[in-house]
Write a sequence for this structure.
């Protein structure tokens, strides 16, 4: 798995590594209204995510409306810049059909590699916790949050 490989490399060479999880706001409502339009929107969002990534980055769809971006050699501060840019690019992109424009927003959780936490499950859990925090923000997106703390239960 690419995440495991990048974590091993980050640990071995003391390199930064960040993981972003991006979730589409209100995607269930869109799917309930028009499943074909929702699928087309996801395909267009994938293009936005891929175009935002560097050659060294990895982009994957990891859930019905969730994408992951693995950012090798990127510290938390750089990952937050990527998250902010990604939120803006998604919000500015029409992901609808030609005859039915559609704007969506995403919420992004950011987790950075911490020495001694070299397990993919831990980094993923930290990114999920940050995403949950972003999803709890009131009002229209985009929102992004960084994981803070030594363990997900310690964040607040």
């Amino acid at each position: 798995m690419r995440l495991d490989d990048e974590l091993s490399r980050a640990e071995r060479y003391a390199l930064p590594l960040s993981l972003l999880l991006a979730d589409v706001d209100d995607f269930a409502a869109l799917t309930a209204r028009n499943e074909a339009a929702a699928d087309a929107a996801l395909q267009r969002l994938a293009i936005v995510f891929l175009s935002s990534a560097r050659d060294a980055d990895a982009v994957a769809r990891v859930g019905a409306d969730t994408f992951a971006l693995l950012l090798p050699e990127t510290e938390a501060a750089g990952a937050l810049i990527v998250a902010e840019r990604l939120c803006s690019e998604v919000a500015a992109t029409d992901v609808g059909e030609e005859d039915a424009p559609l704007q969506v927003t995403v919420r992004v959780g950011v987790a950075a590699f911490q020495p001694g936490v070299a397990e993919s499950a831990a980094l993923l859990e930290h990114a999920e916790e940050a995403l949950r925090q972003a999803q709890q923000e009131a009002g229209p997106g985009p929102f992004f949050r960084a994981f803070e703390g030594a363990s997900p239960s310690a964040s607040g």
In short: The CA atoms of residues 4 and 110 lie 17 Å apart.
